[in-house]
Amino acid sequence: MRQGIYKFVIVILIVVLTGCTDRIEIEDATLILSLGLDLDEKNNLVVYERSPIFRRGTHGKTDHTGVHAATVQRSYSNFEALISTSIYNGKTQLLFIGKRLLQRKEIFPFLDSLNRDPENATNLRVIAVDGPVSEVINMEPKDKPRLSIYIAQLVDTSALRHLTTKVTLRQFHYMIVEPGITPIISEIRKDQKELRILGNALLDKKGYYCTSLNLRETQLLELLRDTQRTPYEFTFPVRLPGNHSKNKKNISISIKPKKLKITTNYHNGVPQFDIDIKLVGNITERTFNMNLDKEANKRIIETIVEEEMNKQMATLIKKLQRYQVDPIGLGLYVRAYHYNEWKAIEKEWPKTFAKSTIRFTPHVEIKNIGVLH
Amino acid sequence: MMEYTSEGVAMRSQSINNISLMQYIFIIHGTQVGIGILTLPRELTEIAGTDGWISILIGGAFSILVSILITSIMKKHPDKTLYDLLLIYFGSYLGTLVNFIVVLYGALATITVIFTTLFVINVWVLVETPTYLILAGYLIPLFIIGSNGIKALGRYSEITFYFSIWMPILLLFPLKDAHVLNLLPVVKEGWYPIISAVRTTFLSFLGFEMAFFFYPYLTCKQHATKGIIVANLLSLGMFLVITMVSYLFFSPKEITQYEWPTLTLLKVIEFSFLERFEIIYLSFYMYVLSTTWLPYTYVTILGSQAILKKGSHKKHLLIFIFLLLLISIFFQPSYLQIAKLAKTWGSAGYIMGYVFPVLLGFYIILHHFFKTRKSA
Q: Max Cα separation, chain A?
């Protein structure tokens, strides 16, 4: 009898306690894969979304809309007034932010709902769009897979080649909150028919747009940030002494960083950084003749590469200092090694960064020249 | 009183209420690892910055010292729980009063852990499901474990430990984004903030006071001290790993912005076929949390049995669980009330876990001193 009552109670509970109160059928869900934020001509926020449709007879179709809304959270309700299904924002892959918005408004408050609601994915890639966001969101490329997936892969593979930096929403949050670094996000543009990675957009501490880095500058910056050690492809012009041929001479080299060492000193109230980097290179292309069997010639090539890198890096660092942005995160080194000085400058680190002395010394060692002499 | 004691001894002599050394270790360790680690990195950073890991080491040393003290108190009366001890030392009236306070403490701990669990589950996993439904589902299996005696509880704690070994290992995954520079310089603001943060770790280390109640059931009592030290060290290691990973991963300014930094760490883990991994983690973590509150529930029902001197523990457990369900229907706490509950438990635990054993130790030494003089 007792056993019977137990079993009855258990069966009843299994039936009642299914925990499916808030389930969603996939046909009834709008999974926002891309979210876009931009300003219209009157500087009002416009929120765009792009989502695949899973219903019979709509194979491969996507839904893309834009609505005016005061905040991102509000826009979800406005979307739901347009779309017959309910919005689900846990699968978002991309967050496009229009350059116009970055230039005119502080971006961080708009992202609050994305960071606060635990249902949101925080691994979405943050991407600045040079031009209107609507152009990217409303693209219908015929020869490409789903746009949201395609752009996500584009950013990921470009980041592997150091052509842009993959910055997730969480990392973006880190960069804005951490005083020793300024934010950096990928930048894309829609040309006639194609999407193109431009490099990176640099933002200041409040999230306003400062300047952009092209692909080459991004590579150099990534070398300093040292977040992933996949090889870098560089092509440098070569000027050999005593050669006045009109053909341009270039050397391409695939470089792998071996060791990055940043030492910090304080000199007369100004931080000094010595960035010492050991690189191992493979020559992948050489458009001039040179006997590389000789030790001396190998050294010449190495010096050429070192000098050229040094020159380009100096230009990049000058640019960063001019715009007062420190995407390298040198402030972290000041905090770690000069904590007392750091406390005084913590709030205005970018200004101090602009004044600091930065020395870059690459040591290139060529290990491999390929199968040609 | 006599009745209860004889019944108690009889109950303890049964084999279903004997626990092995491993079970003893894991009951204490399980009680220590609970809701504390969800917020520990944030609370430590608020006071001590990224030097909080030193506070954990100091807090761990404190908890080991107190654990040894408790074990040596219990050694004097190897087959009596704290409830029996209090009656012996304080007499029937005062002893019952103190017992009642201990029962309230056990109930407070149970309620705090359960309601925090439900709150976190409600925020992260089951947003729409009402709390009492989750609780009802949660309580049934745990009632079955609880009603089968202390041995079942020990086995449950042990098996939960083995099954949750992967959880701290998984927390190492976010280290691919680690910033080692965050930890430097060590002792950045001097020792004062580090020492003041030690109190924060006290709440996390609470659980060693289970020795007061479970020591009599331990079969090999000669290893009790060793066992409780191992349990403390296990918890210390767990807290250190979680705090270190949070320090390396988050910026020191950022960590204080997250309500549950440990859960935010999990959001980084992403597979191509699975997102929001923290849902799986949290659902599994409910097991680990149950090994925190189930021993406290035991403390409560052992106490109510000792005070009322009647009823089987199964009946007491059933009534207690029913009361919990009733509370959950009428009381759905807000985030501020959750924080207040944790704070109240923290203060109560500070007294119960740290101050009380020291006072009791002194009292017992004095008691013996006067008793031996009187008899001499």
A: 106
- CATH number where B78 lies: 1.20.1740.10
- Structure tokens given for A306: 């070192």
3-state DSSP call for residue B158?
helix
Contact assignment for A13 to B137 by CB distance below 8 Å: yes
Cβ of residue A242 closer than 8 Å to a chain B Cβ:
no
> Scanning every residue of chain B, which has its alpha carbon at the shortest distance from the alpha carbon of A330?
B181
| Substitution target from B143, B144, B184, B325 for chain A, most A beta carbons within 10 A | B184
> Does residue B16 register a pLDDT over 70?
no
A203 in helix, strand or coil? strand
pLDDT digits (tens, 9 = 90+) for A30-85: 888 888 999 888 888 889 988 887 777 666 677 788 888 888 888 888 888 887 77
Bridge partners of A36? A48, A96
pLDDT tens readout for residues A157-190: 998 888 999 998 888 999 998 888 999 999 999 8
Q: Could you give the domains of chain A?
A: 17-213 (no CATH), 224-373 (3.30.300.210)
Cβ–Cβ of B267/A118 closer than 8 Å?
A: yes
Cα(A197)–Cα(A189) distance, integer angstroms: 7
**Six-digit token pair at B8?**
């108690």
Contacts of B134 in chain A (CB under 8 A): 19
A318 CB contacts (<8 Å, ≥6 apart)? none
The Cα angle at residue A188 between residues A186 and A193, in degrees rounded to 5: 160
Residues of A in contact with B264 (CB under 8 A): 122, 170
Q: With left for phi above 0 and alpha for psi between -120 and 50, is residue A222 left, alpha or beta?
A: alpha
- CB neighbours of B4 closer than 8 A, spacing ≥ 6? B305, B306, B309
Q: Burial letters for A322-349: b for 16+ Cβ neighbours within 10 Å, e otherwise?
A: eebbbbbbbbbbbbbbbeebbeebbeeb
CA geometry: angle A82, A85, A87, nearest 5 deg:
85
Given a contact cutoff of 8 angstroms between Cβ atoms, the answer to whether B213 and B300 are in contact is no
The number of C-alpha atoms within 13 Å of B33 and in the hemisphere containing its C-beta is: 29
Peptide bond before A271: cis, by omega within 30 degrees of 0? no
Interface check for B124 against chain A (CB to CB < 8 A): the answer is yes
Number of domains in chain B: 1
Residue A277's SS3 state is: strand
Domain containing B47 equals: 2-375
Q: In what order do the strands lie in the sheet with A45-52?
A: A62-68, A45-52, A34-39, A94-98, A125-130, A184-190, A195-203, A209-213
Q: Quick check: B311 and B327 in contact, CB under 8 A?
A: no
* Interface list for B 179-218 with A (CB within 8 A): 179, 181-182, 184-185, 188
Residue A341: list chain B partners with CB under 8 A. none
